[in-house]
Amino acid sequence: MTAQPSEYHRRVAAQKRTSIIEAASKLFLDSGYDGTSLARIAEAAGVSKATLFKQFTTKAALFEAIVTEYWQVDDEEAPVPEPGNLRAGLETIGRRYAALLTQPGMAALFRIVIAEVPRFPELGETQFKLGKMPYFESVRRYLAAENTAGTASLDDAEMAATQFLGMISNYVFWPRMLLPHWEPDDSAIASAIDQAVLTMLARYEAPGIHDA
Fold this sequence. Notes:
Number of helices: 9
Order of helices and strands: HHHHHHHHH
Radius of gyration: 20 Å
């Protein structure tokens, strides 16, 4: 019978995984995806090649882990808002999305993909399928639920999600791709979220919702 790993060993493994992901992200950005070997990543992370290969058998698997790590949202700590109050739900989603996009490393992840996708289109597909789309789908489902609850009036939840997330990302994130020092402060980000919410309410809030 195989013994289960102890809490200590699980914690050490998680720490090594974090070190590997951080080292790989930096090397992919500095040297390119093609120019970075797994052996070099292991050296930079301070782990053995055997340890790295135990967790990630290929460079593609490691990149998938990087994407998943950056886009991961803990459903228990940050569940999708319950429908019933469109303003509050949009405010919550907007703040979380801004925090997700401005976390350390997210801009670097996009730069890696943009730089390498002409030669490695699978990187773009990984970023889209494992990162952006699962998050986008959670917002689409939320807006559809608000529509079902009668608090929103929309025919296309997918388009509505695109509009809302786009209004936020176009201010807090995309300028970073061309302006490395783009760092709007908290009040500016909060204002951008508020304006996006107000625009969504003006367009999609069900008529008469505040009349009762």
